[in-house]
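Same chain as my last thread, 652 residues:
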Amino acid sequence: MPTIQAGIMWEFGVRILAAGGVIALAGWTGLPLFEVAWKVGALMALLAFLTHHLDRTGRMNPGVGGLIAGADAFAVACALSAAGSIEAGGALALIPIVYAIAKRGSYPAATGAFGAGGLLLGAALGAEGALTPVVYLHVAAALLVAIVANQPRITERPKSVSELLAETDGIATTGAQTTIELRAKARRLQRMLGYVEKAARVDKLVARTMVPKQGLPSLASLVDGIAETTEADGVLLHTFNASGDRLVLSGCAGVGSSSSLDHTVQVSRTEAAHTIKARLRDALSGDALLPDGMRARHSILHSRGEVVGLVTLVARREEDLDPMQERVEEAAEALGGAAQTIARIERLERRMREAELLYEIHCRLDGATTLNDLCQRTAGALKETLGCDDVNILLLGDGAEEQPTIGGRAGRALPILENLRFEGGIGEWIASGSPPIAVYDTTTSALIDPGVASRLRLGAYILVAFGDPTCPLGVVAASSRTAGAFHSNDSRVVLAVAAELSRVAERLMRPEHEGASTGLLTHAEFRSAVVGAVRTGGCLLHVEPLHLRRVEEAAGAGAAEQVVRRLGVVLRRHAPVDAQILRHDSSTYVVLLGGASREAAERVASHLSAVAAMESVDVGSNEEPVPLAVRVRTADLDERIEQNRISGTITG
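reply #2:
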């Protein structure tokens, strides 16, 4: 320590003597001029005091040392230039640079640049004319010193246990400061431990949900996982339906029962979180879901900024709900993502069951010998696919006055058709082409009297006729006790089942159609069909999807091709059995209705437009399903082959 203090005082003394020497030399010899000398001396004295202060306080470092070296070089250059001796004594400006590199460990490249800059600036300020080449040589020498000097390399290596213990012993001697630092480190470790514990709790809850003890992940396993993790007396899970305008009770544990799953709350997904909670709280306050004496708290589940649903925690004591709610809300994002993943899994499973159901219906021709047998088998399979409460397949008589009979059912036998309030009765509905009917909430529809719907416990229903739209064989009626339980995908499933059921029923009742073409025709086959139909008459339908360019721009050419292919499937399923279909170009279809009148063709066109409007195409996991909207135009067949075209789509 005394050696360091002596070195500091020695450097301070040298700097003060140099400052005084410059002023004394100017007063003695007149060189440099006194008006310049006193300014340079003051600068050198200021640098001396600044350096001494930084050394005494321990704030001197290699970077600051390099800056001070540049200032020293500037002061020396100013004095020499004012005395006219910059060419002869310019090398003196290199002394501060070498001293900073050797003594203070300053970075040579930066220190050399600072020194060369100070030297050049000082020489320029004191010179009366242009700088001579010798001055530039001194500047180059300063840069050369920076290049030649070796920068010390710092190599870090792992410390041994003895070194760490030695450092710990050294720290322990610092007393109060060490205690403060250790407390800060302990608090930091506690925070990190809290983060780790939170992540572990969230991971455990998600793992418990996504890897259930039995079966595949489901909303029921999500509820069980929340109940097991939070140790709540009861858990209710409400999720939004497909349209996002109603909360549906998707699962319960500890409270409620299977009959409680028809509980719904009218609220939009786009409303504020506190509004959604208030609506659910008001709905549960007067409901039998919560036993007397139970307390409830609600937590929002969200994923990527989108509200997925609400979790209701139930406990007997109010103070028990705080830690439960905290545990759920810290995992709200993960639980919301898990709920969306489960929904995607269920959607894929549903599509698989739908495909199996359609294949099963198509294969019933070998196992079912009567229409009633076919309807009974189809009803059970459709109820399982939709997950609804009741499926009735009704057979219509030859006249509109005849009461429909049940061809097959799964669940209750509901008189839905008899309670439809059409002005002209069921006959008026059939006369209008028997369009599909989808009522997702009977409380907002006037087709069935709300009192009758309440008495029948009818919350939602879908009606789709099968067979010829102008004279259907029957009606597929799917119903649920829960309002909002159905959505557009359910309508699409019922439409597909009704179309396949229609084709199989037609083959059962009319074996002569067994050998008819069931796919799309080539251009040559379609031309032959048109030539054959000219003699008997008929109509042509031109079908094209709408908004196809928008779909291609938003989701790519592959998505647009999926939409066009889906349109072909819809036409094949819902067009009359004897219709001939051609894909004319990349996006349009032409349908030949042999022997059909213009009025019948118009009804078929309206029916195809209606069923297409209820379809949607899944173009990828990251995109929303694309609605299938079409435009259908009709034209009569002409005896002149070359005239059988619609906007030039059919060439003669």
